[in-house]
Amino acid sequence: MKIYFVRHGESEANVKHVLSTEIDGYPLTEKGVRQAETLAQDLKGIRFKNIFTSPILRAVQTSQILANELNITVIQSSALLEYNLGVLEGREDEEAWQLHKDLFIHWGDPQKRDEKVEGGESFNDIKRRFLPFIEHLIDEHGAEEVSVLAISHGGLYMLMLPEILDNVDFDFILKHPLRNTAIVIGQFSANERHCLQWGDQVMGQVS
Fold first, then answer.
1. What angle separates helix 123-141 from helix 154-164, to the nearest 10 degrees?
2. Nearest residue to 55 via CA among 129, 119, 131, 147
3. Residue range 135-164: average pLDDT?
4. Residue ranges of domains in the chain
5. What pLDDT does 142 receive?
6. Quick one: pLDDT at residue 191?
7. Can you list the alpha helix ranges (DSSP code H) found in the chain?
8. DSSP letters spanning 46-76
9. What is the pLDDT of residues 34-87, one digit of tens each?
């Protein structure tokens, strides 16, 4: 099984530089819509079983554009939500972004993965909802030659994909952030959890 992990298109939160994880938050920009439409054309040659999406508006809009072009079903999953920012939600000031960055970097240390801002999620909280979602897909489809789309968020992917892909680690993701509508392709089976592509980079070993 291949899972195509896709980051949503550009949203108004990206443009305004707002920390936002609310379900009914910021929509796609016109550029974000075009990005999703271009991605849909790029993926037309691949037969996908279905699309799983974060319930957050910008991800849902991206998934709907893809689904309309690829003629497949969209399934919302809370496992794909961007991680909860607690008291930082809705802020755009420099202090908030620095706190957000500091927490992200701290999570690179396995001893600090229970840290969180007030009202927000820790690394381990995110892991507890994301990993069972992946394990369920592997249990159901790991022995099949099928492809699945998952539409979610840059923060979630950069934190969680090193947990499930054997040739990607935390140092790698810090050097290779994911742009809007970037794709990470993972190959999964009972014995394999390998990153084939990270954004524009075809993968071999971790570098």
1. 60
2. 129
3. 95
4. 2-146+154-202
5. 84
6. 87
7. 12-16, 30-42, 57-70, 94-106, 123-141, 154-164, 170-175
8. S-EEEEEE-SSHHHHHHHHHHHHHHT--EEE
9. 999 999 999 999 999 999 999 999 999 999 999 999 999 999 999 999 999 999
Options 3.40.50.1240, 3.40.190.10, 3.90.180.10, 2.40.128.630; which CATH number does 2-146+154-202 get?
Answer: 3.40.50.1240
What is the per-residue pLDDT for 126? 98
pLDDT digits (tens, 9 = 90+) for 83-130: 999 999 999 999 999 999 999 999 999 999 999 999 999 999 999 999
Helix crossing, 57-70 with 30-42: angle to 10°? 40
Work out the number of other CB atoms within 10 angstroms of the CB of residue 18. Answer: 17
DSSP bridge pairs for 150: 5, 52
Tabulate helix, strand, coil % of the chain (nearest 5): 45, 20, 40
pTM: 0.95
Tell me whether strands 183-188 and 147-152 are parallel, antiparallel or unpaired. unpaired
pLDDT at 205 over 60: no
Question: How far are the Cα atoms of 96, 159, 163, 178, 188 from residue 138, in angstroms, in the given order?
Answer: 37, 20, 15, 24, 7
Contacts of 71 (CB under 8 A, 6+ apart): none
Q: How far apart are CA 103 and CA 115, in angstroms?
A: 7
Q: Hey, what are 176's tokens?
A: 């290779």
Strand 193-198 versus strand 201-202 pairing type: antiparallel
